[in-house]
Amino acid sequence: MIITKLSNTSDKKALLEKVGSTREGKFIMMEKMQTHFFYIKDLRTPAANILKQDALSIGAELAVEKDTILCRDETVDALLIATDKQLKILAKKELAQPFGLKTLALTLKEYLRLRVYEPKIMGVLNANEDSFFQNSRVDEKNHSIMIEKMIEEGADIIDIGAVSSRPGAESVSEDEEFRRVKQIIDVIYLGRYADKVRFSLDSYALKPLAYALDKGFTIVNDITGLSSDKVCQLAASYKATVVLMHMQGTPQTMQVSPHYTNLIAEVDAFFHERLQKAEQFGIKDVILDIGLGFGKTLEHNLLLLKHLGHFRHFQKELLIGASRKSMIDMILPTPVEERLPATLAIHLKAIEEGASILRVHDVKSHKQALSIHNALQGVTI
After folding, report:
1. Which of 136, 151, 272, 336 is 20–30 Å from 37 (CA)?
2. Judging by beta carbons within 10 Å of its beta carbon (0-12, 13-18, 19+), is residue 341 exposed, middle or buried?
3. 8 Å CB contact between 124 and 164
4. Does the active-site annotation cover 325?
């Protein structure tokens, strides 16, 4: 007899097929092979006692403080621990329960139908001279060279920007932004590069966005999270995909003592509000970006990365852009030019937590890293 401890990230379906499980057996057992943890804040005490008993009755668990049964406090915090199968049963049970448990049941149902997206790489090119990473800058002499290089290296999307959004960056007029970006948009259009990959414009200004969408761009990358009704109308009229990013403040103010009472809940509420707005304007395809470094401390950034999977309940693709950012320097002082290894570490962790689009300066390195990651995911014993 040979016993092997397997990774929790093993391909469950492949393992069950390897041991000869029936089709019905695979369906049943896969539901038992994934354990979920939900931190529930301010759960009404009577609800906690009901949920505790329901969880225990099916083999799940609810961790609460020891005196919860006495109902001395109006609310308590709780940790729900359950498999897929147990969550299905709990979701059904709690729909009929009082004290807010119906809301919990509906939330659990959202996480049970999560979509899985194929990871993609979004390469970054900047048509401005003050972007923080010099190698991402393009000019009239190398537009085609850099675009073709990114395509060859495996970019799925290329994101063009003309205004720096780094902390403290000066604002730029709409006409100046358009002047900077027009030539590269024309190069992309005349070279028919949009037949090979999708193009995104990193902007929230109407004039450059309208021009880009008219020339074949299909993605609006809006760091203001659709704050402008006119941008909403424009994106909807072109049936464009919108990257909806969270930011506290503006690029000029966002890193001045950013503060949250409940970071994840506040970012979640922001996405909920702006997704409703997108729907009202007829925008069908939305990608969510938690906005690393945009009004966040290092601790905020790490917390959002660690619990990125929380935002999967929106059933939207999640974009992460940590490429060579200053959060790396905060952990280990490192020049911008030497931050690629740390960038790869952050982005691979983000993929594991549910991200499917990586916004990067180094396409080739990320393509290689994702290829190895995918190969590991496909390995069985």
Report:
1. 272
2. exposed
3. no
4. yes
Rg of the chain over CA atoms, in angstroms? Answer: 23
Token code pair at residue 322: 């940590």
pLDDT at 130 (0 to 100): 65
Domain ranges in the chain are: 33-112, 120-377
The catalytic position among 44, 93, 274, 359 is 359
Token pair 């916004």 in the structure block, residue: 359
Q: What is the pLDDT of residues 308-342, one digit of tens each?
A: 999 999 999 999 999 999 999 999 999 999 999 99
CA gap 289, 143 in Å, rounded: 27
> What pLDDT does residue 169 have?
67
H helices then E strands: how many in the chain? 14, 11
If one counts every other C-beta atom within 10 angstroms of the C-beta of residue 21, the result is 16
Q: Does residue 243 contact residue 222 with C-beta atoms inside 8 Å?
A: yes
Choice among 32, 325, 339, 349 that is catalytic: 325
Give the DSSP per-residue string, 142-185: THHHHHHHHHHHT-SEEEEE-S--STTPPP--HHHHHHHHHHHH
Q: Which residues contact 53 (CB under 8 A, 6 or more apart)?
A: none
Q: What is the mean pLDDT of residues 70-92?
A: 94
Residue 357 main-chain phi, psi, to 5 deg: -130, 125
Residue bearing tokens 């990871």:
119
Q: What is the DSSP string of 94-150?
A: HTT-STTHHHHHHHHHHHHT------EEEEEEE-STT-SSGGGB--TTTHHHHHHHH
Q: In this predicted model, what pLDDT tens digit does every residue of 61-71 receive, in sequence order?
A: 999 999 999 99
CATH superfamily ID and name for 120-377:
Dihydropteroate synthase-like (3.20.20.20)
- Overall fold of domain 33-112: Ribosomal Protein S8; Chain: A, domain 1 (3.30.1370)
Look up 113 and say whether it is catalytic: no
Mapping DSSP to helix (H, G, I), strand (E, B) and coil, where does residue 368 land? Answer: helix
Could you tell me which of 157, 150, 239, 161 has the C-alpha nearest to residue 197? 157
Cα–chain center distance at 61: 29
